């Protein structure tokens, strides 16, 4: 028995928010002072670091659970399964359903319960629960699904990553330009086909690193002190990721038995173009080998950072030949890897 991803789906919102749309924002420093540089300079410098030229925002009437539902429908159709046969629905997110124009995340009921309801699944033995693990949530959900299947507790799981980060950003913070909305979903199940999940690695660094990403006040001191927004220490995250993500990827690959030269694609969480490129260089340096051409597909330039949705969305796009020149073939060995709030890191080696 092998454990494979038999269906994928993603939902990419249709609203495009281009960089020039931020030219009229009032960007402030953390102390509330006005940033001296013109917005055009701020935005251009931002693009040179992150690689982001545009991102996607969900339409006002849609929430994270809606996006997750749309992606799940596609994954179920792609796998050609009866949704009543799903044993677990695992939904990774960070902030619940944040309705447009509000400041409160809604977790009651869980997003997994809402998505199961929207899918009209009657089977009460289909267990639906949420997973809070920062940006690595979808990858961790796949790891959990594998554990359920290996233990005999399940045969088939639906793993979703969904987020509407555009609704929890501080418009006075330059980091607001990083975040976006979206959802990705996968069916993970036991199969007699060759390949599947070969190895996994997870770690939580919380001693000094727990609050590199946090909920904090707006940079505008005149706004309500009781309203919180997503905040991060970008420099510390960058330095942390460069040291720890390549190591986790190497540990995972070494356990899998796959040779570094046989890795065809590396699907890294789309957090920052420069950071992902640096992680890739560090990873291949650990093996003292050159980086192959086209080994790391990227979507951040057009889709931004949608947290838990980036890896499954990227995988879905490449699998369906929607991100040329990247493509996947049966038997290809790939790596999924992510880092995020917590600070959590994980990786999976997978044979397609």
UniProtKB/TrEMBL annotation:
Record domain Beta-ketoacyl-[acyl-carrier-protein] synthase III C-terminal: where: 253-351
Residues of the Beta-ketoacyl-[acyl-carrier-protein] synthase III N-terminal domain: 129-200
Origin superkingdom: Bacteria
Protein name: Ketoacyl-ACP synthase III
InterPro entries: ACP_syn_III_C (IPR013747), ACP_syn_III_N (IPR013751), Thiolase-like (IPR016039)
Pfam family, one: ACP_syn_III
GO terms of molecular function: 3-oxoacyl-[acyl-carrier-protein] synthase activity
GO process annotations (BP): fatty acid biosynthetic process; secondary metabolite biosynthetic process
Keyword terms, alphabetized: Acyltransferase, Transferase
Gene3D superfamilies attached to this UniProt entry: 3.40.47.10
